[in-house]
Amino acid sequence: MSGTPHDHYARGHDDQAHDHDHDDHKPVNEHDDGPPGEYEIMSRAMQELLEQKGIITAEQVTKRMELFDEEFPYHGGQVVARAWVDPAFKQRLLADGRAACAEMGAMLEAERLIAVENTPQVHNVIVCTLCSCYPRALLGMPPTWYKSRNYRSRVVFEPRSVLREFGTVLPDNVTVRVHDSNADMRYLVVPMRPAGTEGWSEEKLAGILSRDTLVGVTVPHLPA
Amino acid sequence: MSGSASLKSTYTPAPEHRFKVGDKVVVKTAHPPGHRRTPEYIRGKQGVIERICGAYPNPEELAYGFDGKPERVLYRVRFFQTHVWTGYAGPANDIIEMEIYEHWLDPAGVQS
Questions:
Q1: pTM above the 0.90 mark?
Q2: Contact yes or no for A20/B63 (Cβ under 8 A)
Q3: Of A1, A33, A127, B7, which has the maximum CB count within 10 A?
Q4: So where are chain B's domains?
């Protein structure tokens, strides 16, 4: 495998000679520097062969990818908006994320969801360094950057630099708490509710709770 | 965020578990072949048990088609970033947490 020295753990994972069910997701490295990995080359070659033989078309592949997105709609904003307006629900969400999400109709595929709350003292950010574990039933399909080698390798050891690239600048007196989603848990960040949203409906609150705010790379802002 | 006062387990602990919340632990420095969920970068590092997640089928067995029994206790372990990375650029109170199975942990001060 090729790669740069800093991503030895990501490379070690790619080297595994077996498939497994770690969220059924392979890391995506095609948007990073360097040549494609061998699985990527195999995958591309397989698709080209199937297309040449007339078994599938590129359009079908694109359609299937769109179906994945529809299969996992984004519920995260609604869940956190509820937590913002309903303190008892927030306590349930922090105590047992899966059960709280089920109350709102979001059935998680993973056993446990750990919701972590941002406070004036602590900012949380989520990553899966081993591949790309992600609460898809809550947040939809993970964005490409979440699966990128660049994000997975860097946010664990230089989180503040990565957050700054997302426009999130945190003072030194705020603890940055990185969560590596490396095994059986899935994670959700509960951001702080911005000032100026008093009296807003849940629906309106959900509108400022983008996916990125619930992964912890950005914080919610009032619309400009 | 330091000390054990702010740490609490939100889930029912596994029936039998070797460590409790707040215990100091060291991740084993081992490099066995096969499918491991313990990231390379955390092996040999010292942290504190943040919570007990319960018991789960052993992923190192599941990966090869076995049933994963007996189940292993899974912990979330908290590490200071300055203990994980030489020359960490951020403030000393920054932390990283991750899930580590019990058989990858030793009590701090005991070499495996």
A1: no
A2: yes
A3: A127
A4: 24-107
